[in-house]
Amino acid sequence: MIDEFLTHGLSDVEEAVRKAAAIEIMPRFRQLADHEVDEKSGPHDLVTVADRKAEEHLTASLTRLLPGSAVVGEEAVHADPTVYGALRADAPVWIVDPVDGTRQFVSGDPAFCTLVALAHRGEILASWTFAPALEEMATAVRGQGAFAGGERILSGSPEPGAELRVAMAHPLYTSEEDKRTLGRLEVPGVAARPCGSAGLEYLKVARGEMDALAFTWPSAWDHAAGLLLVAEAGGTQSTVDGVPFRVDRDNALPFAVGRDEATTVRIRDLLRGQCEERA
């Protein structure tokens, strides 16, 4: 069933993602009323009517395209954390972040996106990263490459000796312990900055516009689409215990994503405080 869908159904998913954004997200961009924005865990953790409506739209359309599939969406998990368990079950799972970068969306910044990934038994098989306000779509299929705007993209490698450009978990969403860990990136040869929309940061790494990412939280909807996109562009990733991040298990955090293996290892080892010891 999955193989047949990956052969014949991918264009229908792209159409569904575009339609959800056109109907539920873009008409509300820069048009939100105060009562259409709520806080979840705090003043920086926002949710809007666009997030909720887009996720409902995608849940209906994606399960219709692939009967028997489940959906793990950010807003559904917020309402019922047991939904996350579908990632460990046997059915194919759609992993959905309806508006990745809600803070940007609320402020009128176009740097937000919709993220959709299809996973089965923990393996990410296909992904869609759509930035509707930027009119940009990036896709990836396991073993078939990564594409943006219909063109193949490759992450490449940083220039030898060049300063590594790293986007790291934003301080608004990190604990004091996380901040201390991320502080290990403040070394010569690394230029680290807070990340914006995780999905768009992954796209920058896949294109070679950023060299690496460092994340301290595990939410599958933030990472699934981007991890496949970077992998299919030639990049790599690793948790601090030296194994890849997976959506169907508990992971050692933080984890690093890089344009190539050497970059990933460099950032990972900095995060766990080992580079200086090896030097």
UniProtKB/TrEMBL annotation:
Classification via Pfam families: Inositol_P
Top-level division of the source organism's lineage: Bacteria
Alphabetic keyword roster: Hydrolase, Magnesium, Metal-binding
PROSITE patterns: IMP_1, IMP_2
Single GO MF descriptor: metal ion binding
Alphabetical GO biological process terms: inositol metabolic process; phosphatidylinositol phosphate biosynthetic process; signal transduction
InterPro entries associated with the record: Inositol_monoP_metal-BS, Inositol_monophosphatase-like, Inositol_monophosphatase_CS
SUPFAM superfamilies to which the protein is assigned, alphabetical: Carbohydrate phosphatase
Protein name: inositol-phosphate phosphatase
Organism, as annotated: Streptomyces subrutilus
